[in-house]
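Tutorial, part two.
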Amino acid sequence: MDQTCLLFLNICLFCTCSASPLNFILLFADDLGFGDLGCYGHPSSLTPHLDRLAAGGLRFTDFYCTSPVCSPSRASLLTGRYQTRSGIYPGVLYPGSIGGLPLNETTIAEVLKPLGYATAAIGKWHLGFGAKGMFLPTKQGFDQYLGIPYSHDMGPCHNLTCFPPDVKCFGLCDVGTVTVPLMHNEVIKQQPVNFLDLERAYSDFATNFITTSAKKKQPFFLYYPSHHTHYPQYAGPGAAGRSLRGPFGDALLEFDTTIGNLLTTLEKTGVINNTLIFFTSDNGPELMRMSRGGNAGPLKCGKGTTYEGGMREPAIAFWPGTIKPGVTHEIASILDLLPTIARLAGAKLPPVMLDGVDMTEILVNQGKSKRETMMFYPVDPSEMYGLFALRLGKYKAHFYTRGAGHSETTPDKDCSVFATLKAHDPPLIFDLEADPSEHYPLPVEGRPDLQVLLERIKKVKEQFEASMVFGESQISKGTDPDLEPCCNPQCSPKPSCCQC
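Running the prediction step on this input gives:
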C-alpha cells in the first residue's frame, strides 16, 4: 500500500471513529529561541508541560517562521501566505497604526467558521487595531478575544509591576504613547494592564472556552499567541522566582503552566484525544537582552536576522492516539498550519495564492514533507532586493546578509547591527545538516555538484519571485495618535490620561 493510500485510510478511520470534528489549539510563543525549551536541550528551563507535549507528540527540528519579527509572522500563520502578499511589512504594527491585516485576507478562524466551529483568541494580537478597532480578532473570524492588541512593551512600563510583590518592569518600554490595554472583544477592560494577574485571566478565559465548547459538543479553535517570553518579562505569584533561569525562565514557566491548565481541561472534558495542539514561536530570541533575551541554541544569531537563529523555531504537534511520539527532520513552516487544519477539518481553502502546504502526512505517518523550500525575507522586504536567503532541501543560500539591533551583544560579529547589508554573488551556501550553525560556507569552485545545485537554487528563486505579488504595505500607511486605544477617549491630556 503506498503512502498516499495509507494516509487516506488513516484519516478515514479517524473521521469514522470520531464522534465530532477535530478541535484545534495553536500556541504561539513570543521571541522564543530554538534552544529555550527543556525538550530542545536547555539545561535550566522549567517547561514540564511543553516537555510532556514533546514526549507524547512530534517534535520538529526544521520548522520555520516567515519573518524575524512579530507582526509579519502572525499574518503568515493565520493566512498561510507570506507577509509580502498581505502587506504586513516592513517591520511591525504599532498602537496607532492606520493599517492592519486586510479584512479580505482569510484567517484560520474564518476557514473554520462555516463548519460551525467556536473560535477564540487570547493574548498578543499584533495585527492591527485601527479606526474603531476595525482590525481586531473579532473582525477576523474570532467569536471572542481577550488580550493586548499589540506587543506589551508598546507603552510606558517603568512604573508598572512585572513581578510580585512590586518589582518594576525592566527598562522603559515605549514612551509617549498610551499604556497597554487589556481588551475583551472590542472593549477596554483595564488600562494599564495588571501583569501579575494577566496570565491567570488568560488561563481562566481559555479553560472556560474549552469547557463551554465541549459541553455544547461544538468543535473549537483556540489561538493563544502568548506575550511570553518577549521583553519585558513578567510573571505572577504562581511562577515568579520558581525557575532556575531568572525573569526569562519565570515568564516561560508561567506560559508553560497555562499550557498545563489547558491539558487538564481537555482531559476533564474528555476531548483531549480529539484535539490537535500545535506549539511554535513567532521568531528567534532577542539576543540584545542578553540573559533576558532567550537562546538560539546551536543556531546563528537571532531576532531581526535571516540566519537560522532568527527564523528556525521549536515546534511540537500533539494529538494523542493519532500522532505517534517522535522527532521529524522534515522542513515545515507556520505557513503550513492553515492548509493542514483545513484538510483535517474538511474545510474549503480560501481562493487565493497560498504559500503553505498540507502537513498531514508528516503528522499522521511521520512521512515526507511536501515542502522542499523555505524562503527568507528580511524585516523590510522589498521587490528591489527580493529574497535574502532560500533553503532547498538541506542547503541554504544567502544572497544577502545583515545583522540586527535585536541580535546585538553576541560575540558573533555577523549578528551585530554594525554588520551592514552585504550582497553575495555567488551566494553563500551552507549544508544545514552538517553545519546548522552556518559557520562554514561551502566552496563552489571546483565542485561541479554544487554548481548544479546553485543553478537550481537560482531557478527556484527566480520562479518564486516572479510569482510574488507584493500587497500594499499596511505598515507604511503610518500612524495616527488618535487611533491609539484609550479607555477614556474624551480625556485630556493624552496619552497619560488613558487609565481606567
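The first strand starts at residue 23 and ends at 29. In part three we will examine how such features are distributed along the chain.
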